[in-house]
Amino acid sequence: MNQVHTKHSELRSILITGATGGIGIELARRYARPGRTLILWGRNAERLQRLATLCCARGAAVVTRQIDLVDGRAALAALREDDTKHPLDLVVLGAGLSDIQPAGQLTEDPEKVLDLCLVNFTIPATLATAAAERMIARGGGKIALIGSVAGFYELPFAASYSSSKAGLAQFAEAANLGWSRHNVRITLIVPGFVDTPMSQRLEGERPFLVSAGSAARRIMRAIKMGKKEYIFPWQFRVLRVVERLVPHFLRARILLSLKAGQKPVKNS
Ligand SMILES: NC(=O)c1ccc[n+]([C@@H]2O[C@H](COP(=O)([O-])OP(=O)(O)OC[C@H]3O[C@@H](n4cnc5c(N)ncnc54)[C@H](OP(=O)(O)O)[C@@H]3O)[C@@H](O)[C@H]2O)c1
Fold it and tell me: Of the candidates 139, 132, 165, which has an alpha carbon nearest to the alpha carbon of residue 150?
């Protein structure tokens, strides 16, 4: 197995998408330090500005970019522009959308499916590829993709979310095979429930919930160690083993019996 030798202390330029989200904010705060440039992407201008001020106070140089990732061509151009100005050592692709089919509706909303699949799969795969192209030419780098344990399950009430994350996992696996030989390491982060606005919208239980701060610490450690895949918390690693023993017909029944709902999105 090839090792990627970029040490954490050598991460001079880090780009984070979804920096304005629950996990992204905690990652940015923790990565902020003197001698490091953080390139923070998000949609919400006010949150971006607040985060930039906080990270600057911690000694980091900060560049912000207000961007809607639904526009894939613009996102690709933006990544190349940022990488030209600040050759990226680490790219964390954390922006994500979630959705649950409303009760009483027989399908998800097709417009939402379109945006979700772009933001959760098409754009991270595109940006990871563009970053890897540059990193390979420079001799190496690190890329972290934020998937979800939902990607392990074919969730009937969240077909687009679960399949976007399953697709991302497959992309990470395939890309790692090709790119690790060139000193570019992908770490696929696979969280369970993290206490952020995304999961706070869910109705019902959030088993094995972890705080956003704890998630960020774990994610940073996994990236530092160059792990290929990191599932947390540990209970989901156990479930991953157990679920393989469940016969297909029973699995379908269990998945169909799950109840899920979400509160309306608050505009901030
Ligand atoms: N929270 C959980 O329980 C959980 C579990 C498993 C996996 N994850 C994954 O972890 C990642 C981070 O989620 P989170 O919990 O931190 O959620 P969050 O608080 O809702 O943050 C989502 C982030 O994605 C950004 N984003 C969404 N749509 C975008 C778009 N069209 N263009 C640009 N940025 C966009 C948001 O930007 P603005 O806020 O600026 O709009 C925000 O920064 C996601 O990929 C999510 O799927 C979360």
Answer: 165
Distance CA 268, CA 252 (A): 37
User: In a mutational test of the pocket of ligand 1, which residue from 15, 16, 17, 23 has the highest number of ligand atoms less than 8 Å from its CB?
Assistant: 23
- Ligand 1 nearest atom to the CA of residue 115, by list position: 31
Q: Residue holding tokens 């606005």?
A: 197
Backbone angles phi, psi at 216, to 5 degrees: -60, -45
Distance between Cα 163 and ligand 1 center (Å)? 16
Separation of alpha carbons 191 and 210, rounded Å: 9
8 Å CB contact between 7 and 83: no
Q: How far is the CA of 161 from the centre of ligand 1 (A)?
A: 12
pLDDT tens-place values along the chain, 268 residues long: 334 444 555 899 999 999 999 999 999 999 999 999 999 999 999 999 999 999 999 999 999 999 999 999 999 999 999 999 999 999 999 999 998 988 888 999 999 999 999 999 999 999 999 999 999 999 999 999 999 999 999 999 999 999 999 999 999 999 999 999 999 999 999 999 999 999 999 888 899 999 999 999 999 999 999 999 999 999 999 999 998 899 889 988 888 888 888 887 665 4
| 122, 171, 196: residue to mutate for ligand 1 pocket, most atoms within 8 A of CB | 196
Nearest atom (ligand 1) to Cα of 18 = 43
CATH 3.40.640.10 fits 8-260, yes or no: no
